[in-house]
Amino acid sequence: MENVPCTMKAWIYGQHGKPEDVLKLKSDVVVPDLMEDQVLVKVMASGLNPVDNKRMIGIFVQAECPFPTVPGYNVAGVVMKVRSQVKNLKVGDEVYGNIYEKALDHPKQYGTLAEYTAVEERLLAPKPKNLSFAEAASLSVAIRTAYEGLQRCEFTAGQSILVLGGAGGVGSMVIQLAKHVFGASRVVATASTGKLELLRNLGADLAVDYTKENFEDLPEKFDVVYDCVDKILGQCEKAVKAMKEGGKVVIVIAAVTVPAFVFIVTSNGPDLEKLNPYLESGKVKLLLIPKASILSLKHLKDLHMLTLAELPEKLSYIQSNKIINLNAISIYMYTDKNIIERFTTVTKELPYVTNWFHIIIS
Fold it and tell me: What residue stretches are annotated with the Enoyl reductase (ER) domain (predicted)?
């Protein structure tokens, strides 16, 4: 196993502001010290979530850590060091997870957009053997959000569920987990016209085109309505109308109407590990772009620079051809301009991209 240097490369910001103004690549960032329950992970792939941008521009200033800050929640990598209270992980293990136990409760100063990151053992799980590091890095927040929401509403075998936004990163996981892990009797999901076949392939018994049909007017009602659609005015009230008497409505991010409830995802390594057999067997699938369609800047000499104007066109092509639900788009970053453009794109310019871009530090 290679030696760990004293300093590392990392994307870092020292004040709140727009990514293009404050996010910088530094090569002399000190490798974080470890607490007794932590491991040091060499980051093979990381990911960006909308919360990274919100933290950077100062929306959560009352819950912030001291500057400077390295963004990034998702990680997949290799354990390089372990401390005394670490019981199961060992040097050389391939792991993945979300390094923040509670997303906005005392967030860490050093995230995952770096060569190394410090993580509590309890937040990590072994990387599924059939997934690459980049694939695993896209997965932890989405699958954990889906799983935790189903746990919190006490979803059980034999119940029915309506998934709003079933073609998104979280929604696609809710469909599969409800069907294959929790034993749903019936899964209905909504999406736009071009994604209905995707919903069926994921396991939905009925795919509803929300551009043509109001889900709250469906003749059947549901034990659970899981709303994965962000900030649509009046959505919660409609979701409540679609549930059975005594049912439950789960909201990922939005204002709620009683009896619906909203939650902020937590990180839990053992839960991720429980789901590994379903991922490794193929019962739960990560939806990916074929390699030929990956938006990659790895070979800059062979691939022209994608601009913000070009990216939506590329994503529209991917969606119209039913390749993926944008759950995993690998983008290799090499310059300040590249990562800042992608950071701004995934968190602001393209709100329909609900999932994660992978960043591989080079």
Answer: 18-324
